């Protein structure tokens, strides 16, 4: 079962699987690649039950997202992984996705929870420990905190650093995002993160599946170690 120490409207929220530790986040460039579906399917097989594919594409129409989501939902189910949609609750419902990731452009977490009920994962994108606490208090199942390190996807945004991650991780579960390489997985898990979300570390390499396997192994090794603090 999932690991969330929370309730939804007085009723315990119990899902049939554990929250994934590895989130594979896309962007428009990734999704518009002609080989995207094939690459994503191989990534899901490599990630298995420890993996969630987070479909994010701001330029895509609802129809295009739905088409992709239906294909990727089948691939995720076959691999034992999960499929999440960024922002688009309508597409998540139509495609029977497993979760949604909500950012500043999305509906509020509390409203999303009322629409989705207790059977969908809800993630909140946050940029400080205070935002993480608020998102979890309002009904999110996980807060994705970033950017922890400097990252090319947000070149003008200073990194939050590991101390902010440690403070946020008091309100678990927290997933770290932003500049996370396999070599950095151990230190973010050591600061209390439940897992990691990655974009360039998976999609900007030649062998996507091998990159996923490296992250998965790094997570497994880090979880087995005692906390560094």
Looking at the structure, the CATH topology is: TIM Barrel
Largest sheet features: 8 strands, parallel, barrel
Q: How big a fraction of the residues is strand?
A: 15-25%
Envelope shape: globular
Number of DSSP strand runs? 10
What is the H/E string?
EEEHHEHEHEHEHEHEHEHH
CATH superfamily, called what? Answer: Aldolase class I
What is the level 1 CATH name? Alpha Beta
**Second-tier CATH architecture:** Alpha-Beta Barrel
- Class inferred from helices and paired strands: alpha/beta
Overall structural domain count: 1
Spatial extent as radius of gyration: 16 Å
Please list the strands of the largest sheet in the order they lie side by side.
Answer: 3-4-5-6-7-8-9-10
Distance between the termini: 28 Å
Q: Average pLDDT across residues?
A: 91
Contiguous uncertain segments of 5+ residues: 1-14
Question: Number of helical segments?
Answer: 10
Fraction in helix: 40-55%
